[in-house]
Amino acid sequence: MHRGLYRRGRSSVQCLFLLCLADFSAPSSPPLYVFSHVGHEVTLPCNWTSRMVVSPRPQSPYLQWHTPKGSVFEMKGEARYEGRGYKGRVQVAPWRFEGGDCSLLLRELRFSDAALYESFVIVEGSMRLFIGAVRLVVRDHKYRQQLREGEPLVLKLHTPQAATVIFQGGNATESEVIWQKNSRDRSQGRLTKGDRILTLSGVRLEDSGIYKVLDPQGLAVSTVNLKVEGGREAHSRACRASITSLVMAASLLFSHPHVLF
Predict the structure, then answer these.
(1) How far is CA 150 from CA 84, 226, 235, in A?
(2) Per the database record, which ranges form the Immunoglobulin domain (predicted)?
(3) How far apart are CA 183 and CA 204, in angstroms?
(4) Which of 156, 172, 167, 137 is nearest to 221 (CA)?
(5) End-to-end Cα distance, the chain
(6) 211 near 147, Cβ under 8 Å?
(7) What does the alpha-carbon distance between residue 2 and residue 122 come to, in Å, rounded to a whole number?
(8) Which of 93, 125, 236, 259 is 20 to 30 A from 112 in CA distance terms?
């Protein structure tokens, strides 16, 4: 039991402290894999009644979620504990927990959240009972985008953890920083910050390249591969598409002449 929850819990919680030291239950099956993307929210499934053999079913058992690095979330009655790095981002719905649903809601996913999560419940007069294990995999975002000259490029930041945006042109050997959180504008007024987005106005041919949104550790939250088409190129592509459509229509008519009558 975590000390923070131990101090705040009721006296009955104190009786469970020794039970936490003796854990005779262990994972007996491979973990469930859950995949999500950085910045999203995810639910790690858990149901403690599926493993409960005590009759009658205990009221308000003590719930623990943890990873190999430490405690993530603990709950006993009204008492709550949120682990370091998880404050304000984790929750178990109390109205569902009484019915057996101990699923953990994790918001604003970070790459550092990727881990093996294990859930346990403890009830008075019983040992610490393993409920389940979930392996969380956190992925980045990848996009390909094609714009015409003059159109805006909207870059999604996805998460409050977004710290830097870098750009590497098609022929460039190195990247350059075009935006940094809490820093001056480096785009000569072309970048506008919105709600978790950056808008680059009036893209040019030289704006073609790779844009990366990085977190404070330098990991890529998202990667956008942008191609900007000039007026002639866009017009030529539209003409080719029209010709292709006409050829397909003519082929259909010749292969099914009865459609003319």
Answers:
(1) 46, 14, 14
(2) 31-139, 142-229
(3) 24
(4) 156
(5) 82
(6) no
(7) 13
(8) 93
Torsion angles phi and psi, residue 156, rounded to 5: -80, 130
For residues 79-87, give the mean pLDDT.
95
Which among 70, 101, 102 is positioned nearest to 86, based on CA atoms? 70
CB–CB of 145/225 below 8 Å? yes
Which tokens hold the place of 175? 């990247």
Q: What is the pTM of this model?
A: 0.75
Q: Are 42 and 36 in contact (CB under 8 A)?
A: yes
Residues with Cβ within 8 Å of residue 105, at least 6 apart in sequence? 41, 42, 43, 90, 91, 92, 93
Q: Count CB neighbours of 221 within 10 A.
A: 24
Q: What is the DSSP letter of 119?
A: E
Domains of the chain: 3-139 (2.60.40.10), 141-232 (2.60.40.10)
Q: List, for residues 22-39, the tens digit of each pLDDT value.
A: 344 555 678 999 999 999
pLDDT in tens, 181-210: 988 777 677 899 999 999 999 999 999 999
Distance CA 153, CA 168 (A): 15
Tell me the percentage of the chain whose pLDDT exceeds 70. Answer: 72
> What is residue 195's three-state secondary structure?
coil
Mean pLDDT of 224-241: 71
- Letter string b/e over residues 189-208, b meaning 16 or more CB atoms within 10 A of that residue's CB: ebbeeeeeebebeebeeebb
